[in-house]
Amino acid sequence: MKLTSSPATDPTHALADAIASTAARSRPERDRWYSLSVLVCGIFMTTLDLFIVNIALERIRRDLHASPGDLQLIMVAYSAAYGVFLMNCARLGDLYGRKRIFLIGMGVFTLASGMCGLAPSSAFLIASRALQGIGAALLMPQVLATIRVLFEGEARPKAFSIMGIVQGLASPIAQVGGGLLVTYDLFGLGWRLVFLINLPVGLATILLGYLWIIETKAPIPAQLDVKGAVILALALLVLFVPFLEGQDHGWPWWSVVLPLSSLPIFYYFGRFEASLVRQDRVPIFDITMLSSRRLLAGVIGVFLFFASISSFFLSLTLLLQTGLGYTPLIAGLIFAPTALAFITAARLSPRIIRGVGQRSLLLGISIFFLGLALSVLVAFNAPTSVPLLVTSLIFNGFGQGLTIPLALNANLSTVPEAQAGLASGMVGTMQTLGAAFGVAIVGVIFFGELQGAQAAVAGKADLFGHALGTATYFNLTATALSAFCFSLLTRKS
Fold this sequence. Notes:
The chain is an all-alpha fold. The chain has helices at residues 11-25, 29-64, 68-96, 98-117, 122-150, 155-184, 193-196, 198-212, 226-246, 254-278, 293-323, 328-356, 360-381, 386-412, 420-452, 460-490.
């Protein structure tokens, strides 16, 4: 693989970063752990809002008269904005200080949360969710970079372990806590509270962050790729918005032509990013790294796997609340075992790796596939059976918990250490864009099936179960293809 002399791969940059790390670590140990306590609050809030909106979707639909396309865009806007701006926001921390950008990101995220909670229409909520995604993109990479700089030796894995536990707990808390807030309709605010609850937490995090977080930055200035981010954002906008809104208008010509017009924009994006590499500049997405067939297979596998995860929970949320009539709290409790199984798998993964070796990644995705397959059987034959649904979700969560960290590590193992940052950013971008893509495709299949099967299927539960089962065929296909990609990724050169 050809290496470039960009700041991401320059040994001088690595040496300067090491000097900065040493200076930051000279601070008292207590200060470093205080910094971590605030940083993980940011991780918790951004992860929470990725999941909590699922529980509120049905009430949002009723209150704002949101169309199927609007519901999907509420989910897609957050993920797509996060993925587009992630790499540039990471470099802003290198340029202007990670503490400063973290606090700005938390401010943007908190402001956007307030806008979501006060949204008078679905269009306003979609725009506010996109702003939330930008806030998350600003603060999230600062957490990872600051932990890497502040901690070394045995303290570093401990710090990352704490971060992982907080991320893992955010999901069940989002499902159950969000269900409580929406079901009991505190102060008559209903679903709006799942966003407004971020205001006091966000303001407290900003205050404590200002007092406690240790400032770090890269001694050698990073490079931004603003034009690349704008091109990618335009391509995604042209792809997703007409496609998702088109289903609400009977698929007019523009709902097909405009998404197809995104293809030359994506092509231009790839050409532009490759030109930056030739100029020894740093793109947000280094296309030239994909000359490694293993990395190419790996990032495609990540894209497909995450396309399967988020989209399935959209279908399941609609089945539980609209099809079966469960309250958001009951729906959240049904979801909770997924997160608990995820945490269990993540904790057991070192032991599983010792026993199974490289096949652990394929084992994880096979368990996830089994969970999806069981969900299809339940949806078509017994959609009201909560025990069977929960069983399928346990397989689902365990498979995710085993697959996700192993997929990241396997992808990073394909590149030299100097390119690990670029590869990690590429994988993170593909995760979020894959999630957005999956929600778009599965949502169209699900809502289309609801309309097409109304005359043939008797009963609301069976109708929504049929729609979930049909839509999940996409998830099964995407998971099978990602397993094939991961088999190429883990194959020895």
